[in-house]
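Pipeline run #58 for the internal structure catalog. This entry was flagged by the ingest filter as a single-chain record with no existing model, so it goes straight to prediction. Upstream metadata was stripped on purpose; only the residue string is passed forward. Reviewer on rotation: M.T. Logging verbosity set to normal.
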Amino acid sequence: MSDLLRSLPSIREQAPPSRPGPNVLTTTRARSTSTSSDPDASSSDSSTSTADSINTLRPSTPPSTSLQPPIPWPRFFTKELHLPFTPPSSPHPTAIYHAYLTPPASPTKGPLFITHHGAGSSAMSFGPFAQALRSLAPEAGILSLSAREHGSEILPAAPPLSDPDFSIPTLTTDALRTILLVQSHEAWPSLPPCVLVGHSLGGAVFTSLAADGALGPALVGLQVLDVVEGSALEALAWMRTYLASRPSRFGSVGEAVDWHLRSRVVRRGESAGVTVPSLLVRLPERGAGEGRGEGRGQGEDGWGWRTDLVRTQGFWEGWFAGMSSRFLAGRAAKALVLAGTDRLDRELMVGQMQGRFQLTVLPEAGHFLHEDVPEKMAGLSLEFFRRNDRSALVLPPKVGELLKMGKKV
């Protein structure tokens, strides 16, 4: 988080001349539902679905006219799910939760890595991480969640000027509902042994979920990526400046990818080409008589941000206040992975000295460390699971059980 804070002033500086777009990943080791050579494939992170459409979706929209076409999700996950949630008190769905999934080879053995993106990001943020993870452990599963207004849809849709609910309890409930809906959809008798991996806001959401104990013994551990309560609250003072300084529109998806690389929001070109397109939506066509930029076709007016982060600003402080105590309160194993030397508050310093969580620093990465160094992050997550998984342990019988069996002790 401190790395992002240091980079904010540089984003306002004039960008250097545009350079060629990043190379597209062509090597795919993760299982997919369509081949990477499909010329009609396009990113469907923003694809629509009816309330009953909960099966795997294949990208079917025609290729974009943008300079950098989106990379399709099947290169990184096997399923895209749109899961309707209908509470007992309502005859109609009140939400359609979106997620990407590659199931584990064995639902009983796992592991299942459940990921949650940060504010303004998307479930595709963990696409490169998912691919790297599957190359290291083909038996592993990964479930990447979308927050509300980041891919998941709350029904009925709130008017643009209404007050949304982005509080931590609400986002935690959304995450838990999505996980349980996926379990039901996949007909798993119970959740596989799992690790929660949350980046920035996603780390705060999963910290709350782990502290609640709602996943029970299935939860092996919690990994929080590049967010610490103290430095996160400090960075909030700069967030309005950052949001006001970034471009409000891009002429093409490739232009958006290039901006993320030049401003060093994302540092790895292959990752930016995968993750940035899902952050954008096509802007409506301007009215007659209004100017159009050069290089844009008839009927389009560039690309804008999918999520309006300004609407969430009333919840920013609540996302991170008290996070350290909730992080330490969780019963599962805990790990904190930082891109820089964030200042740990007193609670975390004491907790680290007591060995209550594992601390790792990746100085070569930026704030989006799972996009900048996905192979290294995947290795850390897999090692974290293997170190803390107790599902395969066979404990010796207790003395009372031996006596009941007539054994001598």
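catalog note: Residues 7-69, 288-299 have pLDDT under 50 and may be disordered.
catalog note: The two ends are 56 Å apart (CA to CA).
status: ready for reviewer M.T.
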